């Protein structure tokens, strides 16, 4: 007599764990919800090219400066050399660098767009990222297009490039200032995470600053701040909702509504 029936093997990858609520959620449901947890509305991190598909009109993206690569000014070496680390992340992420920039359309409106991607050395800002942000800003100024930059950077300035990385903060900030003095519209979208040198420069200088729900936003992370000031921080400290409450953000927008909101802002605020 058989008392137990052998359980069928569960296919791998059907369920994923939410980083926020820790619940197991059905992968297909998450994918159909713009990579958002159906239980707690946490926005999973997504690749830059997936963001382009969600935000831009189909087949409208034209990428610029695709072959730009970093040099190795310090001959930096930790567990591996800097060129080896760059190559490893290129293979892992499918990207040449941590930033993708180019021209696209949002509901028919032309924009210049840049995206930093945490899948490549945590989206840290090296010389190539800074140069691409400056160039796309100058393109937007020349063409009189709105500029949209989506930030996802948990790595700050890239230590492997030393001062060449740090100077990108001033370089990108100056480019944004020139663009705004010329009357350009700049919209910054902050995703999880938006930290370090990116947040201390171009990501926080926009005319309109938007964040996705629950995005971690700041300069140093909360653990570093708590250890430095020796005080307990609020539970939602440096999350988008906390920053909106304290006036740092203009709005929090769900990923599924991002294209509509950016389109609406461009219609209202952009002057040709």
UniProtKB/TrEMBL annotation:
Note accompanying the cofactor annotation: Binds 1 zinc ion per subunit.
Taxonomic superkingdom: Bacteria
Keywords: ATP-binding, Cytoplasm, Fatty acid biosynthesis, Fatty acid metabolism, Ligase, Lipid biosynthesis, Lipid metabolism, Metal-binding, Nucleotide-binding, Transferase, Zinc, Zinc-finger
GO molecular function, one term: carboxyl- or carbamoyltransferase activity
Recorded GO CC terms: acetyl-CoA carboxylase complex
Gene Ontology biological-process entries: fatty acid biosynthetic process; malonyl-CoA biosynthetic process
Pathway(s) this gene product operates in, as recorded in its UniProt entry: Lipid metabolism; malonyl-CoA biosynthesis; malonyl-CoA from acetyl-CoA: step 1/1
One Pfam family recorded for the sequence: Zn_ribbon_ACC
UniProt keyword annotation of Transferase present: yes
Function recorded in the entry: Component of the acetyl coenzyme A carboxylase (ACC) complex. Biotin carboxylase (BC) catalyzes the carboxylation of biotin on its carrier protein (BCCP) and then the CO(2) group is transferred by the transcarboxylase to acetyl-CoA to form malonyl-CoA.
Protein name, entry field: Acetyl-coenzyme A carboxylase carboxyl transferase subunit beta
Taxonomic path: Bacteria, Pseudomonadati, Planctomycetota, Candidatus Brocadiia, Candidatus Brocadiales
Gene: accD
């Amino acid at each position: 007599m058989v008392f137990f029936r052998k359980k069928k093997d569960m296919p791998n990858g059907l369920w994923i764990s939410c980083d926020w609520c820790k619940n197991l959620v059905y992968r297909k449901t998450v994918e159909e919800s713009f990579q958002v947890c159906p239980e707690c509305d946490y926005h999973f991190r997504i690749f830059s090219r997936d963001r382009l598909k969600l935000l831009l009109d189909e087949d409208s993206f034209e990428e610029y400066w695709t072959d730009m690569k970093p040099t190795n000014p310090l001959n930096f070496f930790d567990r591996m050399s800097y060129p080896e680390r760059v190559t490893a992340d290129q293979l892992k992420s499918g990207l040449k660098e941590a930033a993708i920039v180019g021209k696209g359309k949002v509901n028919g409106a032309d924009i210049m767009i840049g995206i930093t991607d945490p899948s490549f050395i945590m989206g840290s800002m090296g010389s190539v990222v800074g140069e691409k942000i400056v160039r796309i800003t100058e393109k937007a100024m020349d063409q009189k297009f709105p500029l949209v930059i989506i930030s996802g950077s948990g790595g700050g300035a890239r230590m492997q490039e030393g001062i060449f990385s740090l100077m990108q903060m001033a370089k990108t900030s100056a480019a944004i200032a020139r663009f705004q003095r010329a009357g350009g519209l700049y919209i910054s979208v902050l995703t999880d995470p938006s930290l370090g040198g990116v947040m201390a420069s171009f990501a926080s200088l926009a005319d309109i600053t938007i964040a996705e729900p629950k995005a971690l936003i700041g300069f140093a992370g909360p653990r570093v701040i708590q250890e430095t000031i020796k005080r307990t921080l609020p539970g939602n400290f440096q999350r988008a909702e906390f920053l909106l409450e304290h006036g740092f953000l203009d709005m929090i927008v769900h990923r599924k509504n991002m294209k509509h909101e950016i389109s609406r802002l461009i219609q209202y605020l952009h002057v040709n």
